[in-house]
Amino acid sequence: MSRYVLDSSAILAVLNGESGADNAIGYFPDSIVSSVNAAEVLTKLTEKGNDVELAKRAFELLQLTVVDFDMVCAAKAAELRPPTRNLGLSLGDRSCLALSMIQNATAITADRDWKKLTFCPVEVIR
Q1: Structure pTM?
Q2: CA-to-CA distance for 102 and 100, rounded, in angstroms?
Q3: Which of 39, 43, 107, 121 could be stapled to 100 by a disulfide with Cβ–Cβ 3.0 to 4.6 Å?
Q4: Are 97 and 78 in contact (CB under 8 A)?
Q5: Which of 26, 40, 44 is nearest to 91 (CA)?
Q6: pLDDT in tens, 36-90
Q7: Which residues are CB-contacts of 74 (< 8 A; sequence separation ≥ 6)?
Q8: DSSP state at residue 88
Q9: C-beta of residue 62 within 8 angstroms of C-beta of residue 91
Q10: What is the SS3 assignment for 67?
Q11: Percent of the chain residues past pLDDT 70, beyond the cut
Q12: pLDDT of 22
């Protein structure tokens, strides 16, 4: 079982050379990522003008284990909507948090607002 679940913001920090990248990459060897967050990373990379195949290759170089977003994750993400509505968390955010809760793991993110959450452990990379 992995100790960490990566939010797309942590992965993008590494791929884009943003602040917090050095902290984020330290979590990678013992991390997993939801397929929803993988899709979000690829989307953000293609929005910057990258070809989707190039975005996929960049993501694959990170050698992260991608976990399918199944009905258990879907139900948990839906359950998280009411208590996180005030923070404006997206489906991608809630998919990361849901997987973290299911895996009893720590969520890794660049979003400082997640430190306000009390239902699962969170570490912020910057």
Answers
A1: 0.96
A2: 6
A3: 107
A4: no
A5: 40
A6: 999 999 999 999 998 999 999 999 999 999 999 999 999 999 999 999 999 999 9
A7: none
A8: T
A9: no
A10: strand
A11: 100
A12: 97
Amino acid at 35: S
- What φ, ψ does residue 61 adopt, rounded to 5°? -60, -25
Query: Which one-letter DSSP state was computed for residue 56?
Result: H
pLDDT value at residue 38: 98
List, edge to edge, every strand of the sheet that includes 65-67. Answer: 65-67, 31-34, 4-6, 106-109, 122-124
Residue 1 has pLDDT above 80, yes or no: no
- Sequence-distant contacts of 58-63: CB under 8 A, at least 24 apart: 58/15, 59/11, 59/15, 62/11, 62/14, 62/15, 62/28, 63/28
Tell me which residue of 5, 36, 109 sits closest to 44, measured CA to CA.
Answer: 36
Nearest to 7 by CA among 117, 113, 97, 72: 97
The identity of residue 6, as a single letter, is: L
Task: Please name the residues in contact with 45: beta carbons below 8 A apart, sequence gap of 6 or more.
Answer: 12, 15, 54, 55, 58, 59
